[in-house]
Structures are given as structure tokens and as C-alpha cells.
Amino acid sequence: MRLRPLLDRIVADPRLHARLLNTLARMEYVGARKIFKSRHADFLDGAGLQHALDETAHAVRLKRAAEQVAAACADDTTVVTTFSDEHTLAGHAGEGYLQGVDDAAEQALLDLPDPLRTEINYLMTSVAIEVRADSFYPVYDRVLELAGSPFRVTAIFQDEIRHLAERQRQLDDKFPGWRERIDQVLAQEELLFDRWLDAVEAACLAHAELD
Q1: How many CB atoms lie within 10 A of CB 19?
Q2: What is the pLDDT of residues 143-167, one digit of tens each?
Q3: Shortest CA distance to 28 belongs to which of 159, 138, 162?
Q4: Residue 176 DSSP symbol
Q5: Cα–Cα distance measured from residue 109 to residue 118, given in angstroms and rounded to the nearest whole number
Q6: Taking the CA of residue 41 as centre, how many other CA atoms within 13 Å lie in the half-sphere pointing to its CB?
Q7: Positive/negative CA dihedral, 98, 103, 53, 161
Q8: What φ, ψ does residue 28 adopt, rounded to 5°?
Q9: DSSP 160
Q10: Boundaries of every domain in the chain
Q11: Cα dihedral angle (138, 102, 126, 86), rounded to 10 degrees?
Q12: pLDDT tens digits for 32-58?
């Protein structure tokens, strides 16, 4: 599995790590933005608002961590002020990953009428992304722990575990046939995540060539 060695390499370099944290903050922000844009008032409940709030809080925490790591860089040239590509590590590709999962869910639900299709799309997209978060964040948290980082993501992946269970319960209530369709979304998500890792590796290589 290439995720662990890639994270080991990034966390060991504060300049790369600051930009990765900023990328993760951008992805959490985009997730919150998509929740607000996709939810219809007829379906939005307290759990839905809490989901968006949690993703926003994750974005803020990751952004602050990115700023702290950047400020501690010895050469003081790492900038993570915005979510632009030059301030992130494959940030555009990270946003593309999220949109790709959304598109995969859309394709799996073309026979459903709106606004139900939009609501089930939100739930199935969330499940696919939460499944990934529940595997990504524990690995990242372990790398941070071994590196002696003052910043950890334990609370974030605990939130993601809760989000996954909540979205699954909502799907069971609103669209019992979702489990027959989620596999094609998860298969596409895996391909999209691999493409994002490709982009992160390419960004790391480009960074090394500038040194």
C-alpha cells in the first residue's frame, strides 16, 4: 500500500506537510459546500446541519494546522494562505476527486426522480467518501503520532465514523435498495482516489526538483 510511505515522506517535510494539510482543509470545505448546495429543505434535518457543521469545523482545524506547520518552516517560504493550487498539494485534483465521486453516484441513480435523486446522491456520495476517510485518517493519525506531531486527526476520523453510520441509517430509511448500487460508486471512488494519490506524488516530485 503506497499511502503510508507517501504520508511518511510528506509529514517528514514541513513544506510538503503544510500544503497537504491545506489540501485536506480544502477538501473538507468543498464537502461542506456540496452538502449545503445539494440538500433540499424538505429533506434537511438537524443531522444534516450537523454534518455540514462538522465538515466546516474539520476544514478550520486542518487550515489552522497548515498555517502552524508553514509558520515553523525554517526557510519561511511555505505559503498556505488560500486554497489555490500553489498553496496546496494537488488541491485541484483533490477537489476533482470529490466531484468524481459525486458524478459516480449521479450515474448510479439516473432512474430516480428529483428531488429524491439529489438527496440519495448526497447520502451515497457521503458514504463513499466517509468509507475512504475511515481508512485514510487513521493511517495519517498514526504517521503524525510516530512523527511526534502536536497536531492529530483522531477527533476528525471519530466524527467520520459517526457520519458514516448516520448516512447509512438514512439510506436504509429513504432508499432501501442503496446497497445494490453502492458497489459501483465505491469502485469508481477507488480509481479516483488512486488518481489523487498520483497527483500528490507528482506534486511531491515537482517540489523535490525545485530544491
Answers
A1: 29
A2: 999 999 999 999 999 999 999 999 9
A3: 159
A4: G
A5: 9
A6: 0
A7: negative
A8: -65, -40
A9: H
A10: 3-206
A11: 40
A12: 998 888 877 777 788 888 999 999 999
